[in-house]
Amino acid sequence: MALSCVYRTGQRFGVVHLIDVLLGKASAKVEQFNHQQLSTFGIGQSLNQSQWSSVYRQLVAGGLLEADMEAYGGLRLTEDARPVLRGEREVWLRRDAEPVKKSRASKAERGARAREAFAGANEDPLWQALKARRTALAREQGVPPYVIFHDSTLLEILNRRPASLAEMGQISGVGQAKLARYGDEFLKVLEDEANGVG
Q1: Is the domain of 130 the same as that of 79?
Q2: Range of the domain at 179
Q3: Residue 168 and residue 179 in contact, taking contact as beta carbons nearer than 8 Å
C-alpha cells in the first residue's frame, strides 16, 4: 500500500501527504491534486499516522524508497521496489511498540489518594504551621505560596519531619537554592512544633 501510494501519486510527494492519502484525509493538497480519486485513497486506515511514518522510514532505510532532494524531498521508488510492487518479493517490517497509555483510573486513583493525604494533613497543627510560614514568606516576597513550596513538598516535609538541612535537601521539590533560602525557616517550624512552641 505504501509503495503503491508513492507510485500512484507520481513519486513526488513527501510522507505527510502520502499518509493523508492512505488515511483518506481530504486535505487541501489532496484535493488540489485530485488524489481522493486514487485507488489508494483511504485504503490504509488499519494503521495510524505514526505507524505509517514508521513504515515509510523503514522502506527508505531498506532501500525501497529514496528522497528526491531536487523535488523538495518527495519520495520515489528505487529499482528494488519494483519486484515488491509486482508481488514477486515480500518485505517484512518491524512493528513499533505502542506507547503505553496511562489509564484514567490510575490518574483518578492518584488524585483520590492525594486528596486523602491532604485531608488528613488539614487536621494536623504542624501542617497549619508549615502553611502559615509559607504564606508569610510568600507575602514578604510578593509571590504566590506555591513558588516557595508546592503542597506536595510541604506534605512530604510534614510526613518525614527532617531534622537537618541535609535531610530537608532530600525532599522532592527542595532544590539547592530553595534549601539555602528557606531550609532554616521550615526547620524552625518543625523544631518549634516538636518543642510545643507555636
Answers
A1: no
A2: 104-194
A3: yes
Grid coordinates standing for 105?
483510573
Mean of pLDDT values over 105-127: 65
Contacts of 117 by beta carbon, 8 Å cutoff, 6+ apart: 155
Q: Name the DSSP letter for residue 146.
A: H
Residue 68 contacts residue 15 (beta carbons within 8 Å): no
- Residue 48: predicted pLDDT: 94
Determine how many CB atoms are found less than 10 A away from the CB of residue 131: 18
Mean pLDDT of 69-97: 83
Q: Note every long-range contact of 143-151, with CB atoms under 8 Å and residues 24 or more positions apart, other chains counting.
A: 148/178, 148/182, 149/173, 149/174, 149/178, 149/182, 149/186, 151/118
Closest by CA to 20, choosing from 28, 179, 180, is: 28
Closest listed residue to residue 73, CA positions, set 28, 32, 16, 22: 16
Q: What is the mean pLDDT of residues 159-186?
A: 90
Residues 122, 163: one domain? Answer: yes
Phi, then psi, of 68 in degrees rounded to 5: -90, 100
